[in-house]
Amino acid sequence: MDPWIHRFRHRLLAWFHRSRSVPILYVRRFSYREIKRATGGFNRVVYTNPQCAAYNARFQDGSVALVKELRALNDDVFKTEVQLLGRLHHRHLLTLRGFSTGHKRLLVFDEIGNGSLRDHLNDPLRTPLNWRARLQIAASVAAALEYLLLFTDPPMCHVSISSNTIMLDENFTAKISDVGFLYSPVSSGDQADASKADDFMDEKCGNIIYQLGILILELITGQSSDGTSGDLIKWIQGKNFARSMNKMIDPDLGNSFDNKEVRNLLSIAKLCVKSREKPRFSIPQIFRYLQSKVDVTSTY
Q1: Residue 123 belongs to what domain range?
Q2: Residue 98 pLDDT > 80
Q3: Which SUPFAM superfamilies does this chain map to (predicted)?
C-alpha cells in the first residue's frame, strides 16, 4: 500500500466518521422462491469465481437486478457481511437491496439496466461505447476503488475488477459488483488488528492495481480477458508493444479517440500490470490522472 495511505488511512477514517454519518440502508429479506423465479432457476449466470456466483434477475415488478450467491459463509458470518455491505455508499458501487438465507445465501443488488461492461464490448448487436464513455468507466472504477481503500472499516478484503464484474445502469454509470469483507482473517478492533489489516491490504493492493490495468486494456482493445488475460498481458509486455499499439485499438472506437490519450493510458496499464508484486503507484494517483481527463464526481 502507498506510504501516504499507510500514514493517513486511520486519520481519514476518523475524520470520515465524524464528518458524516452514512446510514445503513434498509435491506429487504427476499424469499428463496422469489429469487429463484427471478433468475430463471439460477440459470442466468453473469459471472462466477471462487467467492460467489452472480445472476441476472428480473423480478415481477419489472426491475432487473444482480443476485449474488455467496459461498463458504455460515449464517452468522453472512449476516455480518450483509451489515457491512449495507454501509457502503458510493455511486460507482452496486447498492445492496436485500438478501435471502436458507437454501442459499443470496444478496440482491441494484438494478443493472444495461448489463455488464463485457456485454457492450463483445456483443455486436449493441451500440459500441465511444472513447469518452470508456474513459469515464475507467475513472469511475478508480474512484470506487479509492473509496474502498481509504474509507471502509474494516477494509474490504475482496474485490474483482473486470469487464464481467463492472455493471452499467440505465444511464451507463459504471458500478463495481464484486466486493467482499469477510474472506480474510482480519477485522477491525485493537491496534494489533489494525496492523494485520494494513499488512493484508498491502498484499491486496498490488493485485487490485493489476486488475485495473487489465480492465484498461479491455476498454482500449475491446477484448475480454475471460479471467486469464493471457493474450493481453503478452502483448503489453512484448517487444512489439509500441509498434503494434494502433493495431490493437478497438475498431469500434472509430475516430472518436485521442491518440495521445490512448498511448498515455496504455502506458498506465503497462505499469499497472507490472505492479502486481510491487506497486509503483497508488489507486488515488491513477484516479487523479483519469479525473483530469473526464468529469468525475466522487460520492462518498
Answers
A1: 3-293
A2: yes
A3: Protein kinase-like (PK-like)
